[in-house]
Amino acid sequence: MIPMIYYLGLAVVLFGLGLVGVLLRRNALVIFMSLELMFNAANLVFVSFSNYYGLLDGQALVIFVMVAAAAEVAVGLALMVMIFRTKGSIDIDQMSKLKE
Amino acid sequence: MSAALIVFIILAVIAVAAALAMLLSTNTVYSALYLIINFIAVGVIYLTLGAPFVALAQITVYAGAIMVLFLFVIMMLGAEKLSEHEPLKWQRPVAIVLGLALIGESVYALVTRVGTAMISNPAAEKLADPKALGTLLYSKYALPFEVTSIILLAATIGVVVLTHGGKKEEKQ
After folding, report:
1. Is A92 near chain B, with CB under 8 Å?
2. What is the interface pTM, i.e. ipTM, of the complex?
3. Per the CB < 8 Å rule, is A29 touching B127?
4. Are the CB atoms for A58 and B138 separated by under 8 Å?
5. How many C-beta atoms lie closer than 10 Å to residue B166's C-beta?
6. How far apart are CA B44 and CA B7, in angstroms?
7. Domains of chain A in sequence order
8. Does chain A have fewer CB atoms within 10 Å around its N or its C terminus?
9. What domains can you pick out in chain B, each with its CATH number?
10. Is B118 helix (H, G, I), strand (E, B) or coil?
11. Nearest to A90 among B77, B103, B120 (CB)
12. What is the pLDDT along chain B (172 residues), one digit of tens a residue?
């Protein structure tokens, strides 16, 4: 038996690190990776509660989250490739055309 | 300290260290490799929680397919290293403070609300049954399951349209 708070605490720390990564880094690809980290933390909470209640529903939801994450990464990376082709960089500070 | 707790602590340390290394490394390829380590550590945690199907899906889909896609795009764009110049000087410290504040607040909420709930480890036998998970996906969650297939189809078409459109513009 392990206290559930350990698992939830690990998920919180991973989610917070992902959030800090989104705010800190300027490289769009690293921002995408930080998003994946946050998805991962949410999945960890789903699986912990699935274990706690003895129900499989949490695991089913993790499958759906994985599908959404995979679709998001595919479209996001295609956008990155397009932005790189037009701007020659994936630094998000350069994507400020709407501001000008 | 039980063996399960020791295993959990080792995996948690690996996961957090890999996440930190991902944030701090300047080379994007190293970031992607550290993230793979993080995904595998979390996958093993799923295994100890009694979710073998989710654990292996995590390793094949996340650590395998998605991260290979990342590495492929990084190497294709040649975006391993970006100069991290800083136009907004105050943004970085504020981001760190706010991120740590969110972590602290969440941990406080956990400590006051979750209390002494325990995870059973090893997990109940019926949780670790991929057949039951499949039956659940095709019965109770049949509609969301079909919707995810539409999401994947839309993502596929979107990617093809996005990358193909670029080629046409270059020709004109």
Report:
1. no
2. 0.91
3. no
4. no
5. 15
6. 10
7. 27-88 (1.10.287.3510)
8. C
9. 3-81+94-124 (1.20.120.1200)
10. strand
11. B77
12. 788 889 999 999 999 999 999 999 888 999 999 999 999 999 999 999 888 999 999 999 988 889 999 999 888 888 777 666 666 778 888 888 998 999 999 888 888 887 777 777 666 777 788 899 999 999 999 999 999 999 999 999 999 998 886 555 555 5
